[in-house]
Write a structure and sequence with these properties.
The chain has 69 residues and is mostly helical. It has one domain. Helices cover 65% and strands 0% of the residues. The protein has two helices and no strands.
């Protein structure tokens, strides 16, 4: 299977998309304010960036690493 060789970051990135979908759904449904949705997504993004930096230190490289920008 294609996904069996994913790094921890790549798995977290896939989950990030699912979590963003859920937060946006709550915001659209009126269960979260736009500000709270933004804050939650921003915090998830920070966590993802920290994980990527840790993996880079451990020598895990991606083919097109947009996270360096």
């Amino acid at each position: 299977m294609v996904y069996e060789n994913l790094t921890e970051f790549e798995r977290a990135l896939a989950r990030f998309g699912d979590k963003v979908d859920m937060v946006v759904g709550f915001e659209v449904a009126g269960k979260l304010s736009a500000d709270e949705a933004y804050k939650q997504i921003k915090e998830m993004m920070k966590d993802l960036k920290r994980l990527r930096k840790r993996e880079k230190k451990e020598g895990h490289e991606l083919d097109n690493d947009i996270w360096d920008q």
